[in-house]
């Protein structure tokens, strides 16, 4: 027998629980599906969710992982832990004008722990944690769906009962194997969504635990309500969507605990009905709990606002073109079209892409655009579901549809552009939480079809087929996320109009040394988006390296004209102008780059090279010194200082700079080589020899290292060793300048010595 014991002073909650058990139909009654004990159901869900994404465990750092992890200084031990609370997800200060205001310190903290335990940037550990998190969340979904689909009931021993074991298992499997979740699981930055979902669900389960009768016989526990608020705050510190659980807890309380009929309540509010207190709104404890949730949510948002400041995130038109449209009509139409695309990704997750911005989805600018049909279909379905959720005579149907719509819509609101501009058009990762609502609606629809179907097994086989297809799609998509090359190329067929896709394919090819193929994709990116300054900059760089200087200059000049504060393009333009021997223009370009990026060590390094070419030695040394101050590990700047001081006869100063550099970068063989040359000229042969040998050990195939060591031995009088290293150098590089002449001189000297000895 299922029953609850309640305090005699709180009669209003007892009927709510009792009626749910006695009067509502059991969703599982008509569902033709597997019935497993709770433990086995969770094991099956965990295993299948693991199989879906297991092949991503040894993937690389891809796409946004570079900025959020590899280039994020907040992961390194030298960054104080306290800085995490004042930096955004990407490691920038929240007060910076360029910050995206993505405040997720707890997610960054888990990245930092990953980094410390792995001893560096090894992606396996990061991926394994993501897979474990998704499996854990999928297991928790069994409990969550059992409450959402079957209601909240406790046995006389205080154990929560699963009144819909078959339906909750099906819904949890649908969630576990949904291909749209691949970005969150296989992409390491998806950790934010996974952690947010974990604490989101724990907050919900904690709120449900508040209604388990305690020893004092109270009908709800304030402690567990407060725990759910704290867990909601933790979810928000993992990702912004987490705060929405507080609203969903309130909806659950009203619909499930207090069984409020929303339509009846709206009518009584409109007509100021005196029987309003009987509608359920004023039942004991409901307003108090909702007040706690509202106060908690307001407090959390206030603290976040105080930390982040009032400035809006910095996004550009290419990130979210609809939000920059002048016409309110165009903005509204396109926002709704984006919603329909998100809905379609839930229904048919076949065409998936790592990025949907920058021309992937052209703007709808008139009602004659055929894509308006998608908006109409979306709202037709939504209005139909809302009408059923409000007006159905079946209270069980009203409750499930309202909860399904609530979990579908409310977690999506932060990504909807309704409250603030977001930095994307469509993002698969933001559908992770809303997919809970989709799974509820799908499962309920399946139960209705099962009720009507004569051959229920065929329907069950069809659903099983959908699950198997989704498992295979997850495995395929996970394999695409294992490397940037596969990920970027997979997007070409989905978003051929997306300039960023072509840009990323080109960048990946350029990083692998395939410049000819990279040029093709960079040109296509610029064709699709003539204002794509990053593509222009990278294309200009490649053309500069191929000595196609005039076209490189045109592209880089256009890039800085479009975006005058683009420091990297100004620096690269300076390099091209330097190569064209237009030194004054090059100097001006370098200083403009430094003006827009104060801490720019590479630009100071290139400025120093320009001054060295102009024989402005003091200016060159100052520029390189600035580079090393900003970036102490800037090996090239240190090397150039040593070489310039060496060439100008300042051996003592060159030696001092070399020793300073090696203290900062002790394993840099090029610095060992440069300092060894200086010490050799200063006749400090023993120390010079030790550095040469250390440099050769680090880089044994450098012909110049062997050649200069041979010169040292030649000067020192160790002729046999000199002969040995001259021969090694010539073997490595037969055309090494000066080495052959020095070797011939040594041979003649050795022959003369042999003749004298004879």
UniProtKB/TrEMBL annotation:
Q: What is its EC number?
A: 2.4.1.109
Q: What is its main location?
A: endoplasmic reticulum
Q: Where are the TPR repeats?
A: 499-532, 533-566, 601-634, 703-736
Segments spanning the bilayer are 33-54, 131-151, 188-208, 220-237, 243-266, 286-305, 372-391, 403-424, 430-449, 458-476
Question: Matching InterPro entries, A to Z?
Answer: O-mannosyl-transferase_TMTC, TMTC_DUF1736, TPR-like_helical_dom_sf, TPR_rpt
According to Swiss-Prot or TrEMBL, what is its membrane topology? Multi-pass membrane protein
Q: Where is the DUF1736 domain?
A: 311-383
Q: Which is one GO molecular function term here?
A: dolichyl-phosphate-mannose-protein mannosyltransferase activity
Alphabetized, the UniProt keywords read:
Endoplasmic reticulum, Membrane, Repeat, TPR repeat, Transferase, Transmembrane, Transmembrane helix
Q: In which pathway does it act?
A: Protein modification; protein glycosylation
> What are the annotated GO cellular component locations?
endoplasmic reticulum; membrane
Gene3D superfamilies linked:
Tetratricopeptide repeat domain
Where found in the cell?
Endoplasmic reticulum; Membrane
Q: So which domain of life are we looking at?
A: Eukaryota
Q: Can you tell me which family this protein belongs to?
A: Belongs to the TMTC family.
**Full protein name:** dolichyl-phosphate-mannose--protein mannosyltransferase
The coding gene here is Tmtc4
């Amino acid at each position: 027998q299922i029953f609850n014991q309640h305090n005699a002073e709180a009669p209003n909650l007892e009927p709510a629980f009792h009626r749910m058990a006695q009067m509502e139909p059991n969703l599982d009654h008509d569902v033709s599906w597997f019935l497993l004990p709770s433990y086995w159901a969770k094991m099956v869900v965990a295993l299948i969710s693991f199989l879906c994404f297991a092949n991503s465990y040894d993937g690389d750092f891809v796409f946004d992982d570079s900025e959020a992890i590899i280039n994020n200084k907040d992961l390194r031990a030298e960054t104080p832990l306290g800085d995490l609370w004042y930096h955004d997800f990407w490691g920038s200060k929240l007060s910076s004008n360029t910050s995206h205001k993505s405040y997720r310190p707890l997610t960054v903290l888990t990245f930092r722990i990953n980094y410390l335990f792995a001893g560096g940037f090894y992606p396996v550990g990061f991926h394994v944690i993501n897979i474990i998190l998704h499996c854990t969340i999928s297991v928790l979904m069994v409990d969550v769906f059992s409450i959402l689909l079957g209601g909240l009931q406790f046995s006389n021993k205080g154990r929560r009962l699963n009144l819909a074991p078959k339906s909750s298992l099906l819904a949890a499997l649908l969630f576990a194997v949904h291909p749209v979740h691949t970005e969150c699981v296989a992409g390491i930055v998806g950790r934010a969504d996974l952690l947010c979902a974990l604490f989101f669900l724990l907050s919900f389960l904690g709120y449900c635990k508040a209604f388990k009768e305690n020893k004092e016989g109270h009908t709800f526990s304030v402690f567990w309500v407060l725990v759910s608020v704290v867990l909601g705050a933790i979810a928000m510190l993992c990702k912004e969507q987490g705060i929405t659980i507080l609203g969903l807890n309130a909806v659950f309380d009203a619909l499930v605990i207090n069984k409020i009929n929303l339509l009846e309540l709206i009518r009584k509010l409109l007509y100021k009905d005196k029987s309003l207190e009987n509608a359920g709104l004023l039942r004991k404890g409901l307003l108090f709990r909702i007040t706690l949730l509202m106060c908690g949510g307001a407090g959390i948002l206030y603290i976040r606002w105080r930390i982040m400041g009032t400035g809006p995130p910095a996004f550009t038109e290419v990130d979210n073109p609809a939000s920059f449209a002048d016409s309110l009509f165009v903005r509204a139409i396109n926002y709704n079209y984006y919603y329909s695309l998100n809905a379609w990704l839930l229904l048919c997750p076949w065409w998936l892409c790592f990025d949907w911005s920058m021309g992937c989805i052209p703007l709808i600018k008139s009602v004659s655009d055929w894509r308006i049909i998608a908006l109409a279909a979306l709202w037709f379905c939504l209005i139909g579901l809302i009408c059923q959720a409000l007006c159905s005579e079946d209270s069980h149907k009203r409750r499930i549809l309202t909860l399904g719509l609530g979990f579908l819509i409310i977690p999506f609101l932060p990504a909807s552009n309704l409250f603030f501009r977001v930095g994307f058009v469509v993002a698969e990762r933001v559908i992770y939480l809303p997919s809970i609502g989709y799974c509820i609606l799908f499962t309920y629809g399946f139960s209705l079809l099962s009720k009507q179907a004569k051959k229920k097994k065929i329907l069950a086989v069809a659903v099983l087929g959908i699950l198997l297809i989704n498992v295979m799609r997850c495995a395929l998509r996970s394999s695409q996320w294992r490397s940037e090359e596969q990920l970027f190329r997979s997007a070409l067929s989905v978003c051929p109009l997306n300039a960023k896709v072509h840009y990323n394919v080109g960048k990946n090819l350029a990083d692998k040394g395939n410049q000819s193929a990279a040029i093709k994709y960079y040109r296509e990116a610029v064709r699709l988006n003539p204002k794509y300054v990053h593509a222009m900059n990278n294309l200009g760089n490649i053309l500069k390296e191929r000595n196609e200087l005039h076209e490189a200059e045109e592209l880089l000049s256009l890039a800085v004209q479009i975006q005058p504060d683009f420091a990297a393009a100004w620096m690269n333009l300076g390099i091209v102008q330097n190569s064209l021997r237009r030194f004054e223009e090059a100097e001006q370009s370098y200083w403009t780059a430094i003006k827009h990026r104060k801490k720019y060590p590479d630009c100071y390094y290139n400025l120093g090279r320009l001054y060295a070419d102009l024989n402005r030695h003091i200016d060159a040394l100052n520029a390189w010194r600035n580079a090393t101050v900003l970036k102490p590990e800037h090996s090239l700047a240190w090397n150039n200082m040593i070489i310039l001081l060496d060439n100008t006869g300042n051996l003592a100063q060159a030696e001092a700079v070399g020793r300073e550099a090696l203290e900062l970068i002790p394993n840099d063989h090029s610095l060992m080589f440069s300092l060894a040359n200086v010490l050799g000229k200063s006749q400090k042969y023993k120390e010079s020899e030790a550095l040469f040998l250390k440099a050769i050990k680090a880089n044994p195939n450098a012909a110049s290292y062997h050649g200069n060591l041979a010169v040292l031995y030649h000067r020192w009088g160790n002729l046999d060793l000199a002969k040995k290293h001259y021969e090694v150098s010539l073997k490595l590089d037969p055309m090494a300048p000066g080495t052959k002449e020095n070797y011939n001189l040594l041979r003649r000297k050795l022959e003369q010595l042999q003749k004298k000895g004879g």
